[in-house]
Amino acid sequence: MSNIRITKQFSFETGHALYGYDGKCRNVHGHSYKLSVTVIGKPITDSDHVKFGMVIDFGDLKKIVKSEIVDQFDHATVFNKNTPHLELANELKDRGHHVILVEYQPTSENMVIDFAKKIKKHLPSHISLYSLKLQETETSFAEWYASDNN
């Protein structure tokens, strides 16, 4: 049986600031992110299996990505917890805002690495994460490929 890649797309709104950056993105701002998640595996060949013919049910993949990424990051503001933005983050939290503090500079590159780790932990053993594409704007995106990270 052939390996097949399955892709599901997601979107969410997230704010961030890049502390120490030399351009406009040092300011708190947001993006309408688009995330494409591609997994690879062999379709189920057992005709008695409820998921017969599927690599993974799109709904099952959606549950993983929604709980690990979308529900966490949608309408949140992300800051590197090791920067002076911590004071601003705490002020926003105190005012009831959803703030995420991460161990990294919250660039698309670092976010896609984080997302890959989170998704891989929850995939069934016979399914592998093939790639992620995190689109920050219509013309700018970061990609993660398993083949580049072995």
From TrEMBL:
> Which pathway is this protein assigned to?
Purine metabolism; 7-cyano-7-deazaguanine biosynthesis
| PANTHER family reported in the protein's UniProt record | 6-PYRUVOYL TETRAHYDROBIOPTERIN SYNTHASE, PYRUVOYL TETRAHYDROBIOPTERIN SYNTHASE
Enzyme class comes to lyase
Q: Does the keyword Magnesium apply?
A: no
Organism (species): Christiangramia sediminis
Show the Pfam families listed in the entry.
Answer: PTPS
Which family is annotated?
A: Belongs to the PTPS family. QueD subfamily.
A molecular function GO annotation: metal ion binding
Q: Can you state which reaction this protein catalyses?
A: 7,8-dihydroneopterin 3'-triphosphate + H2O = 6-carboxy-5,6,7,8-tetrahydropterin + triphosphate + acetaldehyde + 2 H(+)
The residues responsible for catalysis, as annotated, are: C25, H75, E136
Q: How is the cofactor bound?
A: Binds 1 zinc ion per subunit.
Q: Which domain of life is it from?
A: Bacteria
Write down the required cofactor(s). Answer: Zn(2+)
Q: Which Gene3D superfamilies match?
A: 6-pyruvoyl tetrahydropterin synthase/QueD
The entry's keywords: Lyase, Metal-binding, Zinc
Write down the EC number. Answer: 4.1.2.50
UniProt-annotated binding residues for Zn(2+): H16, H29, H31
* UniProt-recorded name of the protein: 6-carboxy-5,6,7,8-tetrahydropterin synthase
Q: Has keyword Zinc?
A: yes
Kindly list the organism's lineage. Answer: Bacteria, Pseudomonadati, Bacteroidota, Flavobacteriia, Flavobacteriales
